[in-house]
Amino acid sequence: MLTDSEFRVLLDRYQRSWKGYRKIRRTPMKRVSKHMKLLGCGSIQEYLDVLAEDLVEEKLLLSFLRITISRFFRDRKLWISLAETVFPAILQRTNKLKVWSAGCSCGEEVYSLRIQHHMNWSDCSSIEILATDANNACLERAQNGIYQKSSLRELDTNMIATCFLPSVRRNEYVVRPSYRKNIVWKHHDFFSAPPDRGFHAILLRNNLLTYYSPPVQSATLDKILRSLLPGGFLIIGSHEALPDISFDLIPTACCMVYQLPSSPSPIDQVELLPDSVISGTEY
Residue 42 is part of which domain span? Predict the structure, then answer.
């Protein structure tokens, strides 16, 4: 079995963050250990040498390092903030919302966003969601829209009945067709140029700012923010923080939401939520 110190050497080589992986390291370490054994590598250096010469095996390694943990309406405070503050602020300027979910994993948050819009603003606005990920298997699962009951544990029975249909398999549910519209699924690596521009909000949660090194975070975030409209919102994970480098992003009452300054007028921050509104369980 790979040791922590060996795993850290591997993470350093691929500009990943030990801090991000530390609590969930067992699963990727088991995957890597098995891969090393199959390749006949007796040390981490031998393994790195093989990866440097074989792009196929390196691609396998990178798949072992991907973490795809998510669920519907994860982080209750965030969804309260989106419903009460963020999207109402955007809708004051436009009735056509354009959102990018960068690193959408298996689609739980994309559908959560689509459901929230449908239930709150579908009568007065439209939404276009671009959902991208570098993992084709995740994208396929997202497009199928079939999920284990455990992914729905934030939802009450009424909401499950409204938004999902029972699957043919036990304890699986399928997203209803009405909540699958206006979503474009696309293979895209957020390290490359943004797939589009002019977004009112970008969801960048529990990926880049958790599992990558600060220099990678800064360079990639700089590219991503170029596709965000002035006054638009960046949405991150509950345990994530922005890189130390300044991006002129303005904190809001929700620690997961930042706003890009409006231009050329003074910064237009959203109204702060009272504690009674944002009090909820952190997950």
Answer: 4-64
